Write the structure tokens for this entry.
Amino acid sequence: MKWWTVMASSMLVAITGGCGGQEKHYTLQGQVLAKDEAAGKITVKHEDIPGLMPAMTMPYRVKDPFGMKEVQPGDAIVADLIAANGGKDYWLQSIRITDESGRKTAKPHIRHALKIGDPAPEVPFTNQDGKQLHFSDFKGKSVLITFIYTRCPMPEFCPRLSSQFAKIHEDLVQTPADYDKTHLLTLSFDSKYDTAPVLRKYGLAYLDDHPEGFSHWDFASADPADMRQIADAFGLDYFEEDNQISHSMDIVLLTPEGKIAQYWSNEWTTAELESSLRQQAKSSIGHRGPKG
């Protein structure tokens, strides 16, 4: 099952309802998988939260300076989950560590191994037509990248994200100059299931069955080792469990030179993504992409 801040807030809104500024308190129990001290967030694989949400893995903002300082990846915790403003805002406080033994086996969390201005990794992936591609194949175009898997069971998560990319695609069709200098790329975490035929069928559903749209929007997957390399480079979190994939809703923007231009890891809007993509496209003078 899955998440990320924009998408998770939608679930909280749906469950808590539009109750204005009223705060609701819940008990969260789980294991910390990652800690981002700079952002004040921890990613927790938690149990069912009765009356709120099923078991899942998702990041939480922490309003507990001492707890944030003490907690480490691998820790089992109990914390108070506060949902406010009808579920649009939520955070953890009063974190209690119940077991520290998991710290010994916790993997270190590296956030955004590649910095702004670094070139994207030269890792292969295969698109909906069975064609092998690399990020460098899109040089000359600004590229907006997102990450999903087609079997995602939660309509507020991967399907909603793909719908937002579809809106960007539709908008760009209306401005040919920007359309020719931009590209969309949806990468799947699930290479075992998301083969080229599956990705093609999935992509057509968001292109209104117009296959010519694939010239501007690729749907692709990478072998597990290559996907892990991409994830580590871009600072993505994803975990496979119970035939589902828990993953962060990260967005990456590449310059026409194939370098990292911007990251979004929680708060963003479709309009913001589209505007940034168009702005990067303005710097593509003198370049041409392979699919122009």
